[in-house]
Structures are given as C-alpha cells and as structure tokens.
Amino acid sequence: MKCPKCNKDKNVIKAGLRDTRKGTIQRFYCKNCDTFFSDTKQPYTQYPLHVILYTLQLYNQGYPVKKAKTLTGRKYSYSPPIQTIYSWLKKYNDTLTFIKLRKKYAIDPNSLVTTHRFQHQQIYPFTYHNLKLNIHSKQLPQLKRYINWIERSLPTKMFLSGPRASSTEVDHTLKPKQKNSIIPKLTKLALTTSQKSKSAHETVEQFFLINDSTTVCSELPVFINPKEIDSLNINTPLTGHIDLIQIKYDKLYILDYKPNLRHPEQYTSQLQLYKEAVHKRTIIPEENIIPAVFNEHAYYELL
After folding, report:
1. What own/partner pairs with CB < 8 Å and gap ≥ 24 does 184-188 have?
2. For the chain, what are the domain ranges?
3. DSSP assignment string, the chain
4. How many other C-beta atoms lie within 10 A of the C-beta of residue 252?
5. Which of 111, 120, 148, 211 has the most C-beta neighbours closer than 10 Å?
6. What is the pTM assigned to this prediction?
C-alpha cells in the first residue's frame, strides 16, 4: 500500500477501521510522513465469519436490524453498519433459510422457542420453535399433538433405566445413501460459532433451530413400549432423544449429528429404532419418516 502523500510503500501500517455508508474501511498510517489515510477503493468487508453469523442469528431470533447491530457491538469490539447487515441478509438468504420466513412475521425474541430440560440420566434440553412448528403442523399435525402430549404427560421414570436406542442392535433393512444437501454446509457454519460453554451437539442444534426454516425441534424424547414391535425383545420401554426434527415436503426427517461420521452404517440400528418410535408415537406413516445422519462433511439418508 502506497501513501498518497509521499508515494512510498515502506513503513505503512494498518491503523484501525472506520465505518462508512459503503462499509468498513481499513485505515493506514505512513511513518515516513506522519499521515493517516484510507484505501477507499478497497473497503474492508471481511468481518470474521462468527461475527456475521452472530448478527444474522440475532435477526433470525426476532431482533430488528438496528438492535442486532447494537447487540453485536456490545459483544465484539466493533459493530457492522446497518447497510452491511442488509448485504449479509441478502448473501445468506438461501443458506440461512429462516431469513425468508423472518421477513414475513413479527417475532418476539423472548417467545420464539420453548425449552423443557428433562433430567433423563443427563439433562436433555428438548426445544421447539413455536413459529415453525405452527407453520409445519399444517403438513404434519401429528408431531404437534405429540409435543403437546410430551409437555403434559411424558413419564420421566421410563428414561431413567432400561435400554437406549443408541446402544441397541436390531435387524434392519435400511442402508445409508449419501445425498447432496445443504446440511453439511450449515453444520460447518454452526461450528464456527462454537463457544467453550457449549458442546458441538448443542451448538449445531441451536444453530439449525434458529437459522434453518425446516428444523422444528431438537432433543425430541421418544420411546417404544414392550410388545409394540414383535422383533424387539424388551421388558421395559426403549428410549432415546432425537437430535433434530425437520419437516419438508410432507415428510418428517430424523437427523442425528455424528461428529466422527466415517461409517454411517454403524448407526443404522439406532436410526431404525428412532423411525419406529416416531411412527408409534405420532402415527405418521413409516414411508413419510426419513432417518438421516450427518456432520460437516457428509449427509446420509437411510432408505
């Protein structure tokens, strides 16, 4: 970078950022002639990705753009101009798909999601997105009815002992098939927002729940009672918690996040049981329930 006053490029250093209507501009300082200047031809628009995603998530939680700017400024050492935030909304409109719904509805950030923390050997924060659940219930009302039952009547005792779906092997016909999907890309974005206070699972689940238009709930508790499935030899209910539930095209998708996803076939029994459990609890036809496993690198549906 050459100094516009002395035309020298040695001893020119960066000297902070300056907000303008066109974006954030990098300022420079020339030690040769003691001059500050800006490279107005090259606006500095590369905010850290986690700052961009934090701001957009605030918007998707229901905060107006101006408030999202303010809250970002409080958390980080600088806040983006409002026009820059609008450019981010446009850029990520097809990736963080809830942006499209967010523009159509007035949202209260304090009542966007509902969480119930179940002490089922460990704490499971079952959470659902109120707006998306209401919207997608037009396609599959059975899920909302089951969630209403969970809030009223879910017996905790059955989750404290007995077999778990994640550690039970059963005969199955499902086979993993890798599919093209936006889900790995979303997962990669989610992991850039990770904090020390949260596990990767919690980070991914919260990111999908807030930013993806099809994800309606996380950590959904499910169970299968004895004798409900002839081939399943159990004397007490088999239980589990599904990482994410999506609804799209009149189908319910069971999504299980596996950080180390090298052999998707090893999760077939678990997902088969999740599918059976959702079918038994909601009466959604089995052909309309699609189990899948994913991480930031790949997405497999079990068909």
Report:
1. 184/294, 184/295, 184/296, 184/297, 184/298, 184/299, 185/95, 186/95, 186/96, 186/211, 186/212, 187/257, 187/294, 187/295, 187/296, 188/296
2. 1-45, 49-102, 112-302
3. ---TTT---TTEEEEEEEEETTEEEEEEEETTTTEEEE-TTS------HHHHHHHHHHHHTT--HHHHHHHHHHHSS----HHHHHHHHHHTTTTSTHHHHHTTS---GGGSEEEEEEEESEEEEEEEEHHHHHHHTTT-HHHHHHHHHHHHH--GGGGSSS-BGGG--------EEE---SHHHHHHHHHTT--TTS-HHHHHHHHHHHH-SSEEEEEEEEEE-TTSSTT---SS-EEEEEEEEEEETTEEEEEEE-SS-S-GGGGHHHHHHHHHHHHHHH---GGGEEEEEE-SS-EEEE-
4. 24
5. 211
6. 0.84
Q: Report pLDDT digits (tens) over 223-253.
A: 999 999 888 888 899 999 999 999 999 999 9
1-49, pLDDT tens digit by residue? 778 778 788 888 888 777 655 556 778 888 888 888 876 554 445 688 9
Q: Which amino acid is at 52?
A: I
| Mean pLDDT rounded to a whole number for the chain | 91
Separation of alpha carbons 30 and 37, rounded Å: 8
CA distance 293 to 257: 6
Structure tokens at 249: 């095209």
Cα(147)–Cα(252) distance, rounded to whole angstroms?
A: 14
